[in-house]
Amino acid sequence: MATRALLEVIALDAEDAVAAQAGGADRLELVTDMGADGLSPSVRTYAEVRTAVDIDVRVMLRLADGFAAGDLAALVRVACDMRAAGADEFVLGFLGEDRGADLDAVERVVAELDGCRWTFHRAIDRAADRDALRKQLADLPGLDAYLTAGSADGVDDGMPLLLAEAARRGEPGYTQRLMIGGGLRLDHLPTLRAAGVDAFHIGGAARPAGWTAPVDADAVRQWRTALDGRQERQRQR
Question: Can you tell me where the transmembrane regions are (predicted)?
Fold first, then answer.
């Protein structure tokens, strides 16, 4: 039997979170400042979201635009504060000047997460060598997903690589869940689902009126229906 595909939606606040859950989201990526592609939210915002919904919430650990760790001590403090507030799922990812994984930064932050589950985000799409990055990070505690479009330019450009990585599922460095996001459209879903991809991430697609508007529950529901419709067709075969 086909398993339900995971649908993750970017939320900026409790209003977004409620709408995303109402539309059928399984999980939230909680961020602030999408002008900088998503930074760490405040502890207060996390607490408000956690009170408002009962789906999983992954908190972004990122303090500046780009994929350098920046002020690592400040980042560690954010991670500690979020853990103290009850956060138990996270999103992070840092690259060095050589566009390889910044292992020092990643390991330092992950050490504060007490084994919590986390996603390595789209920094992988800017990496010089994705395969090498995956193998460098493979044994870090809690890493259970990569958020990727397959390319810095989005899913249209990255589709061949995404399909190739999906086919390597289970190999060393490829045991983590492949979650697709970044220019993702509904018409991409059939190809990705046929390849066995079962996790999807949307941001702008959940906001037809743009980032100045809140998440639209009906827009999220359209994605939920598309994913569940394919599952239903598989059961009927």
Answer: none
